[in-house]
Amino acid sequence: MANNESNDTSTQNSKFLQLNSSIQILNESISIQMPQFRQKVLKTVHSKDAVRRKQIACHIYINDLESVPGYKALKKQICRICICEEETSKFIAPCKCKGTAEFVHQECLKMWILEQYGVNKIYNDELYCEVCNHKFEFDVDFNDRFDIKQFQRIKKRTKLCWLIQIFFIILFIFGSIEIALGFGINSLATVAIIVVFGLITISLTIYLIFNFSSAHTIQMIENWNFQNYKPKSSASLPKKNTKKITNQFIRVNQIYFT
């Protein structure tokens, strides 16, 4: 009888294990997938860093909600800047604020910071919440990019200087050719003049290329991501040093009893 009971219990346990493992497999196969939106550039915010004398730009992206048909927001979160519930960009909670001021769109926060504080606060890592004074934690990269669209922002007098330099470069090139064809290269004086013209032409060309490239180089703010605020747990708080107190207590007791 005992053997039969043990066999019955073992078969029941095996059935239970099989059922439990099947449930685990089912639960592992089910995963909540967040919708993957296509992103597009809403606008490009331009700024000037007066300290480092550089042109700065940052793309503000927006989620294309139509790229995920039938999408509806799962949580009732409201951006404290644009007062919008739609997930036009990633919702974050970067500071200690609660209630209606807890969540904000990451791209809305970027645009607000650029318009309010400029670039120096970002570069020096000095961004704080204006309500709770919590320091924002973020990662950011500053990368130099060549942007031909900057030609429209260049001043007219700078463009005029470039035209004058191009005129003198062409003038010295044709002058060297005319001297070589007219007087030949047998004379030392002719060769010296051609060499001088050539050095001036090379110098002007290098200077023109440098100015043109530097005027069209812009520093882009890229990979700018904020981190959500995480309150410090009691376990992470520094422990009080009670070892010295206990040692002093033992010494006092030893002196008293002796």
Automatic annotation (TrEMBL):
GO molecular function term, any single one: zinc ion binding
CDD domains tied to this protein: RING_CH-C4HC3_MARCH
Keyword flag Zinc-finger: yes
Location in the cell: Membrane
UniProt-listed Pfam families: RINGv
PROSITE patterns with a match to the protein in the record: ZF_RING_CH
Keywords: Membrane, Metal-binding, Transferase, Transmembrane, Transmembrane helix, Ubl conjugation pathway, Zinc, Zinc-finger
Classification via InterPro entries: Znf_RING-CH
Keyword Transmembrane: yes
GO cellular component, one term: membrane
Transmembrane segments: 160-183, 189-210
Boundaries of every RING-CH-type domain copy: 71-139
PANTHER family referenced in this protein's UniProt entry, alphabetically: E3 UBIQUITIN-PROTEIN LIGASE MARCH 2/3 FAMILY MEMBER, FI20425P1
Protein name: RING-CH-type domain-containing protein
Organism encoding this protein: Paramecium octaurelia
Source taxonomy: Eukaryota, Sar, Alveolata, Ciliophora, Intramacronucleata
